[in-house]
Design goal:
This protein is of the alpha/beta class. The chain folds into 3 domains: 4-139, NusB-like (N-utilizing Substance Protein B Homolog, Chain A); 142-170, no CATH class; 220-432, 3-Layer(aba) Sandwich (Rossmann fold), CATH 3.40.50.150. Helix content is 41%, strand content 14%. It has helices at residues 10-24, 40-55, 57-67, 79-92, 98-110, 119-131, 133-137, 147-157, 159-169, 184-190, 229-234, 251-258, 270-283, 324-327, 330-349, 370-379; strands spanning 175-179, 193-194, 199-202, 220-222, 241-245, 262-267, 288-291, 303-309, 351-361, 383-385, 406-408, 425-432. Helix 1 crosses helix 5 and helix 4 (79-92) runs antiparallel to helix 5 (98-110). It starts with 9 loop residues before the first helix and ends with a strand. Residues 137-433 form the SAM-dependent MTase RsmB/NOP-type domain. GO terms for molecular function: RNA binding; RNA methyltransferase activity. S-adenosyl-L-methionine binds at residues 246-252, 267, 293, 309.
């Protein structure tokens, strides 16, 4: 077995391969942390390799079909991940020499007991990829989105939108921040662009999030522009008793607390809620933290408003989480739809008469969005749709549906010509009828 200390660059490639392997097996992507790779440059490169492999997954599949006649060998440890990382280096990371990519891929395979017996295969396959570089780099973006999703989304949003989705998928997304309070000087210090409401977008950055201006002082938190809209549409006021269901990672809780509301933040994950607690502490904000299953939380109709960011397929987040395109299927979406309906009914039971409910999902699936709004109309007569209008969004009416809900898609043009796309979201607002 190769001693990883003797070969520069091998450790980070092995870390990338093991990380990618876990994602291919169904785990969500999380950036490689300093305890795994101490050097920030090594972490940045390893994370870039993994995320590019996920974004280009469909094109890499097409490459494999041409250079691996029998497919990727099974029960071969990290072999598939090693090959995917190396194909990324050969075709899309121009700053890495081809000979180095091939050599380190072979050594990565040799460093793994199961993959090591395929070292010659790795060398031969990657040299074939190198010879076909021009051909493989010309592979179309139509390979990027799984066929079943592409068909579904084309029917819903049109072929042009789906083509744009694919273009956005292979781009590194910008960083969106929600400001705790308006601060033009902070926006300038960040080098950001105001997008909508309290959202500021950083198209590029050369520092870690924790090193950006205003972080240590608790002046902002990371939150996509789409994710900032549901809490805004709740129109929270000082002293209102508000429940944030499925609250982690906590951006919406922070928005509601910033408005002066008395917020109860609930989520089933204790670990995630510890991070919410820590972030609220950094921001100087307060909320009651509850770790529980939302469907078991029974307080009676005591809340002035409920924000339900329901568990969903999360297909709208593919810009930042490309692995969702690999992990989702029709059955899983149907299961989430059923859960969302239970949660909608339960959320309604927690509202006072006259109380407001905002339902949202970071999904592009109509079954989790528009169809759920229709389901509420037919099955929860105590709830009445409360239309969202352009004035609720600073005059930005592009996202409004005829039913008065909000449908956001990644290809949608943002106000002021801001680039970079946005997460797909559906947001509907209701009021509980007075008795």
């Amino acid at each position: 077995m190769t001693d990883t200390r003797d070969l520069p660059g091998l450790k980070l490639r092995l870390e990338a391969a093991f990380h990618l392997k876990s994602v291919l097996e169904g785990k969500p992507f999380a950036p490689i942390t300093p305890d795994r790779l101490a050097e920030s440059r090594d972490r940045a490169l390893a994370n870039r390799m993994v995320t590019t492999a996920l974004r280009r997954h469909g094109q890499i599949d097409a490459v494999f079909r041409q250079v691996l006649a029998k497919g990727v060998p099974q029960r071969a440890g990290i072999l598939e991940a090693v090959l995917r990382i190396a194909v990324v280096q050969l075709l899309w990371l121009d700053d890495i020499p081809a000979h180095s990519a091939i050599h380190l891929a072979v050594e990565s395979a040799r460093a793994d007991k199961r993959a090591g017996r395929f070292d010659r295969l790795v060398n031969g396959v990657l040299r074939s990829v190198q010879r076909g570089t021009g051909q493989f780099q010309a592979l179309g973006n139509d390979l990027l989105i799984p066929a079943w999703l592409a068909t579904q989304w084309t029917g819903t949003y049109g072929a042009d939108a789906v083509a744009r989705f694919a273009e956005i998928l292979v781009q590194s997304p910008p960083l969106d921040l929600t400001l705790k309070a308006p601060d033009p000087d902070l926006v300038a210090a960040l080098g950001g662009q105001p997008v909508l409401g309290p959202t500021v977008r950083l198209m590029e950055r050369d520092a870690a999030v924790a090193d950006l201006a205003g972080f240590a002082e608790g002046k902002w938190w990371v939150q996509d522009v789409s994710a900032a809209l549901p809490a805004r549409l709740l129109n929270a006021t000082k002293g209102e008793k508000i429940l944030d269901l499925c609250a982690a990672p906590g951006g919406k809780t922070a928005q509601l607390a910033s408005a002066g509301a008395d917020v109860t933040a609930l989520d089933i994950s204790a670990d995630r809620m510890e991070r919410v607690r820590a972030n609220l502490g950094r921001l100087g904000l307060d909320a009651e933290i509850v770790v529980a299953d939302a469907l078991d939380y029974a307080q009676g109709p005591v809340f002035d408003a409920v924000l339900l960011d329901a568990p969903c397929s999360a297909t709208g987040t593919f810009r930042r989480h490309p692995e969702v395109l690999l992990h989702r299927n029709a059955q899983g979406i149907a299961e989430r739809v059923a859960l969302q309906r239970k949660m909608l009914a339960h959320a309604a039971s927690l509202l006072k008469p006259g109380g407001r409910l905002v339902y949202c999902v970071c999904s592009l699936e109509a079954d989790e969005g528009e169809a759920q709004m229709a389901w509420v109309r037919s099955n929860l007569p105590e709830l009445e749709a409360l239309r969202v209008v352009a004035d609720d969004l600073d005059g930005w009416g592009t996202s409004l549906t005829p039913q008065g809900a909000v449908r956001l898609i990644p290809s949608m043009a943002l106000p002021n010509g801001i680039d970079g796309g946005l997460d797909g979201f559906f947001i509907a607002r209701f009021v509980k009828k007075a008795r």
